[in-house]
Amino acid sequence: MSYRKSRHHRPDQIPAWTAWIVLGIFLLAYHLKVSVNLGDDASFVHALDNQNLISWSINQYHTWSSRTLIEAAMVTMRIYGPNLWRILNTGMYVLIGVLISWLFTEGTLGGNCVIAAGILMLFGWDLNDAGQIASSMNYIWPMGCALLAMIPMKRVYGEVENGFGKSYRGWEYLCLLPALYASNEEMTAVFVTGSAVVAILYSFWQGQKIRPYLWALLAVGVLGLIYILSCPGNSIRFAKEAATGYPEFPDLPFGIKLRDGFLTASYLMVRKGNYLFLFLGLLMTLGFVFTGRGYKTRHNRTAGMVSAVFTVLLMISGVLRPMMAKIIPVFSGDDYIDKLFVSKAVSPWAEAGIFLMVWILLFGLLIFACETMEKAVPAVYMLLFGLGAKTVMGFSPMVFASGNRTGLFLLIGVITATVLVYEAAEEKLPDWVRVCGLGIYSLFGMYVMTMQIAALWLA
Prior knowledge:
The protein contains 21 helices and no strands. By secondary structure, the protein is mostly helical. The protein is globular, with a radius of gyration of 22 Å. The N and C termini lie far apart (about 45 Å).
């Protein structure tokens, strides 16, 4: 990874880590007041009334879930340390931002602000509808732990001055501990395994010696997947959820499940709160418009026009949709997708085909906008992982009932892609465009979070 000094990050300016201080203040204000007595949090508080943690965990494994490590930590935290969770969860969100910056970017103030504002925008998606502690420790914490497990990969993709120091010997294996936690959740287990596989293949391609840590990380991810797939509780819960919420699910063919999962992931792009996607589109458009001169400009202008059309469609389907609904009633409500597509005129397969073309277009624009493989590879990997993680929900009978929380990984991927596009465009944008754009993006993130905080403190 490159760590060149940006012209926008001089020593006499605000330190880059200031973004994490501001992010932590907003998050702490939110967590100090948020309720931990809703959803699954309310039921888990009584989980150990008549049994100890070990017997409860064994029963969960046999009757409900393979998330043994996660649920044991979650129940313990809910019963004995809800106030400790408020601090730790604040830290976990900040840690995710710091790790995205450290692993994938140059660590400039502007890039850190993009990440911090994106994390604040997550709170406009209602990702904690299953309960604050339950949702965060099942999704946020595994994501943070999966990123922690990637720290030693810095030596695979390029030497850096910071990190564990000149030698990782011994210290890097501590990162297997968070990898164990991450591999206890289905989607982050795939992330851990996939990250190890990609790093091993990259090392082989570069003619590098494959570090033992990568094989150890791969083993942790694979064992986690085996544990998940062999858990009897998952099969029992799967059958119960299908019988109560989606009786026809077991009889659906593979293609239908894949299609429905893909559509639920794609819907996040075109719903009212799609501002993360919208800002990504706007940033790519600005980057293309202000890039270079000469032969390359024609290509960038073409990409800029395509990106602009993509952005306008996102605006119409998202932030401008309430206004559009007054003119075209079909745009009212988040079920407008069904009104437009799921009809006799257009089949769900046609809808999936349209979204597939949109995603291909988005990935193409993203690669072009990042300019270098150093930025394009992590941007595509993180976004593709998020899309895949949400798509595989199509193979769960709760695909339509799990809410936005299963889209967390896709939104984290969008944030990562956005900051990488920003860094690729940072040197090309005029100062007034860069400063105004970064200011609007940051203020919008703070606005989203301020509304959440105000609602909690004024309730």
